[in-house]
C-alpha cells in the first residue's frame, strides 16, 4: 500500500510517498481501510520534531474508513499513521459513525471537534451569557468551537491572523473578530468587556499570544493553552499568575479527555449530535490527494488555510 513516511524531521519536503507493507493487526487492533484522512496542525509538530516520534515514522492522527474485521464505518483520532491507504488502529480508539455523518466530515472533524467538545464543556464549561476569547477562530478547531460556543449561549470574541479571515470567523459564531497582526486586540477585549476581561481564553497559538492572553483574563480567569502554532510558550515564573489576578492555567490534551473507550465514544457522540442538529457545521475548504501531503503542509504553514483540510487515498 501507499503511505506518507519521513526519515528525518524538517519542513514539508521531508514527507515522501512510499510503498509499505502493513503487517496483520496484532491482538487488540483492527485494520481500517481509509476513505478520508484528516490534516491537523499537530501533524506539523510531529514532522518538524517539536513533538518527537521514533524515526522513520508515518504521520497523521485522524481518519475515517471501514473496519475490515466488521465492515462497519468507523473513525479514529490520536493514532499515528493516518497518512496511508490503511492503518492498524487500537480497537478501543475507534468510534462508530452514525448514518448522518459522512466519512469526509468525520475525518475532517473528529479530532478538531472532540477537542472543541472537551475545551468548551469540560476544561472550562462555558455558560450562557459569558464572553470568551478564542484565538485562531478561522482555523480548524476555531470554526467548530466558535459555532459551538455560540450554540451554548456565549458571546464570542475570536482572533484571526489576517483581514481576509474576518468574515469567515464572523459567519461561524464570532460576535467580535480581531486581527492579532494589526489590532490592539488586548485593549479591544478589555473595551468589549467594559474593562473586566474574559473568564477564559482558549489559545492554540502559543508564544506570540501568551502574554496578551493573560492580560485579557478577568480575576480568577482560566488560560487554556492547547497549542503552539507560533512556537512554544517561553518559560515563566508562576508568580505572574497571581500578579494578574490569581489566574488558572491548564495545558490539556485530547487523550486525557478521552481516556477510555466509553469516554471516547461519548465525546464523539456529543460532537455528532451537534453536527446532526445543524448547530455546528464543518467546512472542508482544502482537499489534497495522499500524494500531495507535502503541498497540504505547505498550505498550513502559509496560514492561508481556513476550515478543515483532508487527504484522499
Structural write-up:
- The chain is of the alpha/beta class and 313 residues long.
- The protein has two domains: 2-111 and 258-312, Quinone Oxidoreductase, Chain A, domain 1, CATH 3.90.180.10; 128-251, NAD(P)-binding Rossmann-like Domain (Rossmann fold), CATH 3.40.50.
- It is built from ten helices and 16 strands.
- It has helices spanning 41-48, 103-123, 140-151, 166-171, 185-192, 210-215, 239-243, 254-257, 261-277, 293-301, and strands spanning 2-6, 16-19, 29-39, 57-58, 62-67, 73-77, 86-90, 94-96, 131-134, 155-160, 176-179, 198-203, 217-225, 248-250, 284-289, 308-312.
- Helix 3 links the parallel strand 9 (131-134) and strand 10 (155-160).
- It is globular and about 60 Å long.
Q: Summed up, what is this model?
A:
With 313 residues, the protein is α/β, with parallel strands linked by helices. Helices cover 31% and strands 27% of the residues.
Give the arrangement of secondary structure elements:
Layout: E1 2-6, E2 16-19, E3 29-39, H1 41-48, E4 57-58, E5 62-67, E6 73-77, E7 86-90, E8 94-96, H2 103-123, E9 131-134, H3 140-151, E10 155-160, H4 166-171, E11 176-179, H5 185-192, E12 198-203, H6 210-215, E13 217-225, H7 239-243, E14 248-250, H8 254-257, H9 261-277, E15 284-289, H10 293-301, E16 308-312
Helix pairs in contact: 2-3, 2-9
